[in-house]
């Protein structure tokens, strides 16, 4: 295993961040991965702590700044978590529904990732 990659269902631009934030407050925008990793204004401290338990790099990207191979692999299905293996191949680890099942809990999310990484 080389790297875990999470892709948010949001864009990393000033307009993208602002429109997501307002839309989320109004209940018209939602990203289950954002709910796990971020509070209203910044990354959750509990997410930073839980992420360390993974023992593998976990990088996050937005729709508009993800690596090209990840963009092609996910084909617009966000949010998602993918595993890049030692050969550079991508494997879908969690889709939107599976991420949503973790609620807003970094602890449940990390536990589920660890479960899925078991041989």
Element layout with pairings:
Blueprint: E1 3-7, H1 14-26, H2 32-37, H3 45-52, E2 57-61, H4 68-74, E3 80-84, E4 90-94, H5 96-100, H6 106-117
Parallel strand pairs: 1-2
Antiparallel strand pairs: 1-3, 3-4
Number of helices: 6
CATH structural fold name:
Glutaredoxin
User: Element order, helices and strands?
Assistant: EHHHEHEEHH
Helix and strand content put the structural class at alpha+beta
Largest sheet, in brief, is: 4 strands, mixed
Strand order of the largest sheet: 2-1-3-4
User: What would CATH call the class?
Assistant: Alpha Beta
Radius of gyration: 14 Å
* CATH architecture classification name: 3-Layer(aba) Sandwich
Q: What low-confidence regions span 5 or more consecutive residues with pLDDT below 50?
A: none
Q: Got a strand count?
A: 4
């Amino acid at each position: 295993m080389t790297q875990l990659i999470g892709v948010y269902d949001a864009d990393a631009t000033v307009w993208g961040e602002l429109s997501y934030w307002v839309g989320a407050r109004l209940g018209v925008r939602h990203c289950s991965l954002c709910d796990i990793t971020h509070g209203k204004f910044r990354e959750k401290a509990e997410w930073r702590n839980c992420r360390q338990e993974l023992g593998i790099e976990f990088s996050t990207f937005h729709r508009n700044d993800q690596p090209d191979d990840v963009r092609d692999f996910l084909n617009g299905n966000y949010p998602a978590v993918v595993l890049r293996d030692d050969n550079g191949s991508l494997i879908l680890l969690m889709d939107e529904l599976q991420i949503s099942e973790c609620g807003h809990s970094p602890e449940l999310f990390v536990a589920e990732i660890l479960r899925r990484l078991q041989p």
